[in-house]
């Protein structure tokens, strides 16, 4: 039986119009995505450069999650100026190519920290797997991959969601799921996600 949170995630992905074509999801060319990523993405989203540790890793994001975030920038539901500009410049085929490329990669695994055990228990309590998949690797319904994501980025995102400055799926803003989380709990949750693969 599908939980109400999972149904909400599926509904959100369907409503976002994830670049569907008559036969199903639009296909992308991973080789073209690789070239485009090298030219437009890795200077900020590199998995090997610590300088951008507050920006998300894109490796391993499911296509639907990548496209849903791109559409949010295109529709100005998310407002990072660089990303809004890129969303206006790239075609739907470009986005599909990038999504195909990044979905085929795996993020590097961070070392397990002392906070990750607390974070694991917290993730279980919050039922993160209901929407983000059994191994927190995201879903074809548009939920983002949390496994392997940079801890600093996750902390920043959760703080924004807790404060109502960023949406969390179809939840209200601010999301009541995070309302009572302390900063330390958010850091533990982020450490747990980063330690997964």
User: Any idea what the shape is?
Assistant: globular
- Tell me the number of structural domains: 2
Output mean pLDDT. Answer: 85
Unreliable runs: 1-24
Q: Could you describe the largest sheet, including whether it forms a barrel?
A: 2 strands, antiparallel
Q: Proportion of β residues?
A: under 5%
The succession of helices and strands, N to C, reads HEEHHHHHHHHH
Supply the CATH class of the largest domain.
Answer: Mainly Alpha
Class from helix and strand fractions: mainly alpha
What is the secondary structure topology, with strand pairs?
Elements: H1 4-15, E1 20-21, E2 24-25, H2 30-40, H3 42-45, H4 63-74, H5 81-89, H6 92-103, H7 115-126, H8 129-132, H9 151-163, H10 183-194
Antiparallel strand pairs: 1-2
Describe it for me?
The chain is mainly alpha-helical. The protein has 2 domains: 4-103, Cytochrome c-like domain (Cytochrome Bc1 Complex, Chain D, domain 2), CATH 1.10.760.10; 115-194, Orthogonal Bundle (Cytochrome Bc1 Complex, Chain D, domain 2), CATH 1.10.760. The chain is 51% helix and 2% strand. It is built from 10 helices and 2 strands; from the N terminus they run H-E-E-H-H-H-H-H-H-H-H-H. It has helices at 4-15, 30-40, 42-45, 63-74, 81-89, 92-103, 115-126, 129-132, 151-163, 183-194, and strands spanning 20-21, 24-25. A two-stranded antiparallel sheet has the order 1-2. Helix 7 crosses helix 10 (183-194) and helix 9 (151-163) packs across helix 10. The longest helix is centred in the C-terminal third of the chain and has 13 residues, at 151-163. The two termini are 26 Å apart. Mean pLDDT is 85; it is low at 1-24.
């Amino acid at each position: 039986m599908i939980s109400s949170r999972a149904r909400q995630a599926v509904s959100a992905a369907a409503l976002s119009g994830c670049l569907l074509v008559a036969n199903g999801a639009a296909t992308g060319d991973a080789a073209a995505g690789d070239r485009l990523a090298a030219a437009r993405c890795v200077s900020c989203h590199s998995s090997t450069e610590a300088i951008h540790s507050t920006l998300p890793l894109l490796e391993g994001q499911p296509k639907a999650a990548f496209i849903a975030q791109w559409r949010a920038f295109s529709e100005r539901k998310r407002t990072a100026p660089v990303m809004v500009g890129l969303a206006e410049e790239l075609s739907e085929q470009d986005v599909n190519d990038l999504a195909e490329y990044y979905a085929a990669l795996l993020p590097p695994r961070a070392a397990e920290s002392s906070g990750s055990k607390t974070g694991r228990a917290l993730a279980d309590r919050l039922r993160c797997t209901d929407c983000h998949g059994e191994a927190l690797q995201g879903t074809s319904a548009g939920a983002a991959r949390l496994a392997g994501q940079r801890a600093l980025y996750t902390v920043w995102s959760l703080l924004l969601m807790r404060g109502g400055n960023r949406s969390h799926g179809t939840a209200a803003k601010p999301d009541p799921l995070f309302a009572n989380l302390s900063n330390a709990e958010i850091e533990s949750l982020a450490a747990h996600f980063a330690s997964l693969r």
